[in-house]
Write a structure and sequence with these properties.
The structure holds two protein chains of two kinds. Chain A is mostly helical. Chain A has one domain: ABC transporter involved in vitamin B12 uptake, BtuC. In chain A, 73% of the residues lie in helices and 3% in strands. Chain A is built from eleven helices and two strands, in the order H-H-H-H-E-E-H-H-H-H-H-H-H. In chain A, strands 1-2 form a two-stranded antiparallel sheet. In chain A, a hairpin with a 3-residue loop joins strand 1 and strand 2. In chain A, helix 2 packs across helix 9. The longest helix of chain A has 32 residues. The N and C termini of chain A lie far apart (41 Å). By secondary structure, chain B is mostly helical. Chain B contains 15 helices and four strands. The relative contact order of chain B is 0.18. The chains are: A mainly alpha, B mainly alpha.
Chain lengths: 296, 340
């Protein structure tokens, strides 16, 4: 294998991996705080891609401007799903300890509904948009060129992650979220409205997907069926990085992106994801806390 | 506990009555399509029950059972195509292969709990699906990748699991469901059934009491794998076509779990109830509105799943038992007093 081609694959993998990391943040945040696996995570991303797509198709809104609409819209969607569907499960359990599996199936139901309603509304086609900007690429030497849209997505992903970490570390709401994650009962005793924190956390996890959707749509066509693949990819990312760790997400995403990209040089692109699953299983068996995770 | 055992007798009676009705159904149902819906329903009842053997009774959510069904279907079909071996023998071979895979994969997986277990089973099943989808041939055996395999037509050949018309298939799958119910019923009352329930309630406590949890989880997994693979072979013979996406995909695993959970996991009748509710509803929506609204039946499945998780976490079997229990019989009352 040519070293140059391999190098290009690694760089492409890193660029893609940053995005995978940003996609997984929401899943990690929600699991870290609520101990709930959101099986509909990929379907929220699918919605996050459709929002800027339709804003562009109908009103010619630049996808990067659509962030202002998509992120709040996804926040509200996530907030509503948590407040209306998941919260009653918490209220039913006296000790507020959920059987995680039942929430997993509940969110699987939410995902089924979202996927198939969009499928009924828009059909199975892959839909993308073309910006003039998208055809331009950053060139480096003879081999390496990265589309500006991808590069921008990578940079904003990293920025978003840093911003979110800062938000969790410094603001009152961030502190409330972290304390709820650490000890729900103690947080409640300190006057934190735990259920509201859950709603906000779920909403934030989905809002990130609204931002990522706007970044992705210029180079990634959307179809109602993409949800599950991205959901699974996010699980892998989160487990790799360590559940609940925001920087771990980016690290997990980078590893996953590079593995997929390099593996695709040796086998077909569709088989390449086998390697991601193998890594996923190995991490779960031998280092279940992930690369940067704390002891659960 | 008292209400459960009281209702159980009536549930058994009701099930037996429905069983007799189902046995007579081919005489009344002459329409091919209706018979097909019945066969599909029984097939899902069978598969959901096989899933229930390990997942319902132990509380570990497997979303990788489609891989076991895929192994069953592929092994029996490959043996038929390449060696001319009758699927009647091939399905047992498929079952043995699936059991081996199920135990080998289950052994490390059962150390993981809750969502970790579920995610790992997904990973294993997806590896198998993606590999099959991208493999045209292996060791000179044609797998035909994503295209899938077709069963060579032999006309009316009972020895090769091929029949004219749908009635024989109906009888076979009905017998399979009955056998599986008997196995589940027997297991529920055996020592193993009690151990599994103890593990479901609290694995650490069960182990502290001396239950060798891995051994019993793996035994349940072995039984479940074998039975799931038999169902996979039946599917291949009935539809005469299998492909990795339909027979090994995650969607199929979710459908099985959904029927088990909606009906009531960890009970003999629950998964069958779930299949009888969801499969005909799905088939009818698909047939009548599928042209206009493709995917509607899956959205309905999703809605039913959400409603079940919110309002009937123990499944439909729970209110049904309550309903049947309102008029206690002598045997029901006797059971109650012994329970109390």
């Amino acid at each position: 294998m040519d070293a140059v081609i391999l190098g290009v694959a690694v760089v492409n993998g890193i660029v893609l991996g940053g995005l995978y990391g940003a996609i997984a943040i929401g899943l990690s945040l929600i699991f870290g705080v609520m101990r709930v696996i959101n099986f509909a995570h990929g379907s929220f991303l699918m919605i996050g891609l459709f929002v800027p797509y339709w804003l562009w198709q109908l009103f010619k809104v630049n996808p990067y401007v659509s962030v202002l609409i998509a992120a709040p819209a996804l926040f509200m969607l996530g907030y509503a799903v948590q407040a209306v569907l998941i919260a009653p499960l918490y209220r039913r359990e006296r000790a507020m300890v959920l059987e995680p599996v039942s929430v997993l199936m509940l969110t699987a139901g939410v995902g089924l509904i979202m996927d198939n309603l969009t499928f009924m509304a828009f059909g199975p086609d892959f839909r993308g948009i073309t910006l003039d900007f998208a055809s331009k690429a950053f060139r480096f030497g003879d081999y390496l060129n990265i589309n500006y849209t991808r590069l921008l997505a990578f940079q904003v992903s990293l920025g978003l992650t840093a911003l979110l970490s800062l938000f969790l570390a410094r603001t009152d709401l961030g502190r409330a979220i972290r304390s709820t994650a650490q000890n729900r009962d103690a947080a409640a005793l300190c006057g934190i409205n735990v259920m509201r924190i859950y709603n906000v956390t779920f909403g934030m996890g989905c809002a990130v997907l609204g931002v990522v959707g706007c970044l992705m749509i210029p180079f990634y066509p959307v179809s109602p069926s993409i949800g599950l693949a991205f959901g699974i990819r996010s699980f892998i990312t989160v487990v790799l990085g360590g559940i609940g760790s925001i920087p771990g997400c980016i690290l997990g995403g980078l590893v996953l992106g590079v593995v997929e990209s390099v593996a695709a040089q040796f086998v077909t692109a569709t088989s390449a994801s086998i390697f991601s699953f193998v890594i996923f299983i190995l991490v779960l068996f031998f280092r279940p806390t992930g690369l940067l995770g704390m002891k659960v | 506990m008292a209400t459960e055992s009281g209702g159980r007798h009536r549930v058994v009676t009701a099930t037996a009555a429905i069983g007799v009705l189902l046995l007579a159904a081919p005489l009344a149902v002459t329409d091919e399509y209706h018979l097909h819906v019945l066969i599909a329903t029984l097939y899902f009842a069978y598969m959901a029950s096989a899933w229930n053997i390990v997942c319902g009774y132990t509380g570990q959510l497997s979303l990788g059972h489609s891989a076991l069904s895929g192994i069953g279907g592929y092994v029996s079909t490959l043996l038929l195509i390449n060696a001319g071996l009758s699927p009647w023998i091939g399905m047992v071979a498929g079952g043995v292969c699936a059991t081996a895979v199920g135990v080998l994969v289950g052994w490390p997986c059962f150390r993981l709990r809750g969502p970790y277990f579920a995610l790992t089973t997904i990973a294993f099943a997806e590896i198998l699906r993606i590999w099959t989808e991208n493999t045209e041939e292996v060791f000179g055996i044609e797998l035909r990748g994503a295209q899938g395999l077709s069963i060579p037509l032999k006309g009316h050949a009972p020895a090769l699991f091929q029949f004219d018309g749908k009635v024989p298939y109906y009888c076979i799958i009905l017998a399979m469901v009955a056998a599986l119910m008997a196995i589940a019923w027997w297991m529920e009352r055996s020592r193993m059934g009690f151990y599994l329930k103890a593990i479901r309630a609290d694995q650490d406590a069960a182990e502290a009491l001396g239950v060798h949890s891995t051994r019993y989880l793996l035994s349940a997994m072995a039984v479940s794998s074998f039975l799931t693979a038999l169902g996979g072979s039946f599917y291949a013979q009935y539809y005469r076509y299998i492909n990795p996406e339909r027979n090994m995909g995650l969607d199929f695993s979710i459908e099985l779990a959904l029927m088990g959970i909606v009906g009531g996991q960890g009970t003999v009748v629950g998964p069958i109830l779930g299949a009888f509710l969801l499969t005909p509803a799905g088939e009818i929506t698909r047939a009548t509105l599928g042209g206009k609204f493709p995917g509607l039946h899956l959205a309905i499945y999703g809605l039913v799943l959400i409603l079940a998780m919110l309002f009937l976490p123990k499944g439909l079997i729970q209110p049904l038992r309550g309903l049947l229990d309102r008029r206690p019989t002598v045997s029901g009352a006797a059971a109650k007093s012994t329970q109390a």
